[in-house]
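Anyone opening a protein record will find just a pair of labelled lines. A complete record is shown below as an example:
=====
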Amino acid sequence: MDEQDKLAMASRLAREVADTRQRLVTGGLFYVAGWGVVTASGDVWQDHALAAGGVGLALALLAVLRFLPGPPPQDAPVERLQAWLDSRWWLVLATAAVWGGVLSWAMLDPHLAPGRTAALLCTIAFATAFAHNYSLRLGRAALGIALIYVPAPLLLPHTGESLSVVVTLGVYTIYLGLVMVRSYRDYQAQLDLYESVRTQRDQFETLSRVDPLTGLANRRYFSGALEHLLGESRQRQQPLSMLVMDLDHFKVVNDELGHDAGDVCLARFADRMREVFHAPGVHLARLGGEEFGVLLPGLDARAAADVAERMRASLEQAPLQLREGPLLITVSIGVASLAPASEAEGTDLYRAADRAMYQAKTDGRNRVRIDLGTA
């Protein structure tokens, strides 16, 4: 399973956790109320007080445990999300099993005969609600419905009820199965739609900050990073340097080799940037066309120029590799830096680095120049 599949699974599980939590809120209390209705008439409390109290206590405890512990955060690991869901399902299925026992007791024990009709009506209601609300997992939903409902058609013939009532319950079993399957499919469709919307949102978010050709940050995101790092540099009393790099005679690459080769050249240059500028906190961006930017927090102008020179020299020592062969292309780099005490803004730093880059062009290209005006 690749990283994308893991993210999709985590997203679906987080959604299922939220939906399950919502469905758990009131369900357990209805079982407690149902038991109260079933035992309201008859003499079960006189003859079987301990058993009746135990059933009521079990249903009440299961209802309370639905809320403990609360759901994990949506960004929790997949294992934690799945563990929470499994624990909730155990409680739901345990409640279903207890109610199945209640129904069997009502069907077989004369002491509960006065509450038999109430037990049967509650069972139909609980099974129907289960089919609608808990069909998030098909197999578990089928088990829960069976635990709640199956005692009814199996034991009802032993109570002396008419054949028509028994047949009606049998037919209703088919209806429950159809409702369960439909609810499961509807829920899976909702999850698919939710995942599709989430994926599109993530893609739009990525496109808003990443240059699609090179995978580097785009100009908009780079500008935000510049302002953020400028604030941090002043807080930490550290310099902030910026490089503006422009490929020399890039138009020749497009004219002689074609725009596809030009795109490959830009992508290869971005890869080289990642190889050279790999220190923690460095920000890389494509500013537009064949112009690139680098933010180097913690480095003054001289140290930044040394790093820039390594980038420039690397193109001479190891030319970019295209399908057409090695590409002998150079780069002009401008360097500027802001000291922590400087009152200049991020735009001032960019203009200074841009001026230095154009000075490198004027001086013959394939070189590094420093603008000390903002230091």
